[in-house]
Here is the input.
Amino acid sequence: MASARETILWRIRRATRDVPEDERLEDVAVERGYRTRDAATREEIVERFAERVAEYEATVRRVGGEELPAAIRETLQRRGVKRLVVPPGLPEEWVPEGVETLRDAARPRLTKEELDESDGVITGCSLGIAQTGTIVLDAGEAQGRRALTLLPDYHLCVVREDQIAGLVPEAFARLEEAVKSEGRAITFISGPSATSDIELNRVEGVHGPRILEVLISP
Amino acid sequence: MTTTAGPPDAFSTGKTPTFEQSAKRSLADTQLRRNLGKATRTIRAKRAIAVEEMPDWEELREAGRALKERVMRHLDEYLLTLEESVTRAGGTVHWARDAGEANRIIAGIARGHGASEVVKVKSIATDETKLNEHLQREGIEAFETDLAELIIQLAGETSSHILVPAIHKNRAEIRELFMRRLGAEDLSDEPEALTNAARLYLREKFLNAEVGVSGANFAVAETGTVCVVESEGNGRMCTTLPDVLVTLMGIEKVIPSWRDFEVFMQLLPRSSTAERMNPYTSFWTGVSGEAGDGPREFHLVLLDNGRTDVLADEIGRQALNCIRCSACLNVCPVYERTGGHAYNSVYPGPIGAILTPQLVGIGDSGSDSLPYASSLCGACYKVCPVKINIPEVLVHLRGRVVRRKQDRGNLRERLDPENLAMRAAARVFSDRERFEKAQRLARIGQWPLVRGGAIHNLPGRLAGWTEVRELKPLPDRTFREWWKLNRGEG
Here is the structure.
């Protein structure tokens, strides 16, 4: 008896008998007439990113390079974060003194329960997308495993200005290498989690962090 | 908690009512119509703004359409590449000819890990296969984690909208349901409070689940990357926290390469929730490996279940291009009034009207009625992000439904007056002399019906036509006769 795999492949070939035998994939033309490069200046792109992140009800602030550690300290204090999850590779100067840190490492790993009971997490990112106000994590340096930014109720993300891409196609181009060579998991975050399932009223904070805060620094 | 089987739909065994029969019930429900009217109006307006902002929207739609066309014409090749990529990344690929086979594979994996519970992120493919009911029979409880899906699961109902499945329920109904089924006390009917009750209930499920089940929005042949687009974070939970992840996807969801996300991830969120980008999108490639990031075991189940039959129809094939955004539902004047349940399918609205009858096969009176659930106004085609020409397929399927009745129907269907009339018409239209003779006869035959230059009441079974409109009588002379008389000699 033919396997399910063979049967389905046979059904597909029978169903597409109208396709000429010698037609190659690229013979089916795909016109890519859409924008692939943002012509705006760096400053315009950064400004647009900040605006659009803010439109998702996330808190955004631009800070100078020197001021970053103080801005982080002040932000965490204001949010009352005492137990802070810290991913591997996070710059030490970002970790304020006086907060209890829960450091994730290959061994030992923080448990789901520890993450769930923490007050928040601080991370960097892989890149930002100005067009859509999106933060992209690729599980790399200063970001860590996906669970770290999922279970805590508060996420503070630091984005460097040169990490911000203008358009969506530019972002996918930059991520291509990490996916192809390392198979990294990629997460797009655009504002805090939300639902509009009850009478289409938007409610922020369903399962992911209920509060997302972004600091942009040079 | 128990999973209650919803009412039968086109994908259950047994006959379903026709759209017309079911629509009558929906139309009589004023609460439903109020909810739907508000919801569809809101989303329509928001979507228009989100699309307006994009100067290259038409170019993106065209690229999306062309990519899907390329995939459908070479689906076998892309699926084999996908299988190879997923396997290379440490995942396991399974093939399922039909719903039963898919359900058995998924239940087998869950049982193999001794799981008595699985957490699920919304997946229409699993609604199509009735996975939850199958798992329950196997002693495995499936927990829906999307807020709306949780609501309808608790209520023992079925989805009425692709994107907002509980669009037919208002806050008071949801409050009552949560108090009764989740044991939540002192619950207000504010959406924030209701959402928080669901968060608390599901958090415990997420932390303890060993097996997660998801659908897929896209899967990349080139890299083996699978993608879930969502808003609430339950998708991230289900695809990240459990040790074992099983993803069920229709074979048509494969896309060629990683870079093609640049097209679909622009088209989908704006068409769907009218956002520049949805809150969360997860892309994963195989298993976590050393990093311990996410599931250690990943299974991808590729589902046919009628899709290859859709593929075999050269005009109907484009229905497989659908990326499940639901924009066509929100602009449809028929859907806005009847809601999703009238379609008796997990795929409601205009896209459902062309997808359901093709997936289950022409010949069931319920799903055969769906291509008629449209005024052919074309609004669905205009908003479709991958340019599926829904009106074209609707008309084509109406033709298929009629032809099947003529060729293979029972005696009653074959002697149907519409069928007999169409056959007679075909005979008359095919011969010029016969046609001209028929015109002369019709002119004589119509005189008892003409009153003041119009026909107001057709006799017998034709009366339906003139109940709501007048008919112009045939003129005294046809254009051809006039031409012969006035210019004929030249």
